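User: I'm designing a mutation panel for Class I SAM-dependent methyltransferase and want to avoid disrupting the core. Could you give me a predicted structure to guide residue selection? Please restate the sequence first so the numbering is unambiguous.

Assistant: Good idea. Sequence first, for numbering, then the predicted structure tokens:
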Amino acid sequence: MFAKIEHGPLMDRVYRHQRHFYDATRKYYLLGRDPMLAGLTPPTSGSILEIGCGTGRNLVLAGRAYPKTSLYGIDISNEMLATARKKIAAAGIGDRATLAYADAAKFEPEAILGRREFDRIFISYAVSMIPQWQAVMREAINHLTPGGALHVVDFGDLRDLPAFARRGLYKWLEWYHVTPRNDLFDVAGEIALAANAQAEIHRLYRGFAWISVIRRHA
């Protein structure tokens, strides 16, 4: 049903061991995740999909913040999905969470998740690791309900940080196959325009983190 996923094996190699301590270390620099989650505000009994759900950390927090929502997650790494399933079960929200292995650039949510559209879709620090990230965002818009919204949080352009800090962070991210998308806001605006939707931008922590929101009209 799906084309061969070549990025998956790379992510499995990267996270095979990291997944066990991923959340403990990433909390210090994956800034903006919690403000993004707080801004989801889905309708009561709505649906939330995370693209690149990783360890399940964000879905657990979303489940606690929005206790009547249905939760969904996809990831291209089976290693991460294994950790996510354990974390979600431990949080006691397994009865309303569905996870699946998929390529976010081209997937069939109805076939793998049992649902075609979602009230909220979010991508947290994943577009910087997905080669075809623009296609992923365009595909996500196609799976929003009327009035639904796509929320993306990732590294920003670090514009207001000292030059040495920018250089050091970019070099460090390169080691982990992470490429900040400094044109994220521009691309989001283009996608919103093509979809007759509305784009919002939020710059946090001196440009360290960016949040992009694309809202479909009801």
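For picking mutation sites, this is relevant: Confidence is low (pLDDT under 50) at residues 1-5, 14-28. Residues 128-137+169-204 form one domain.
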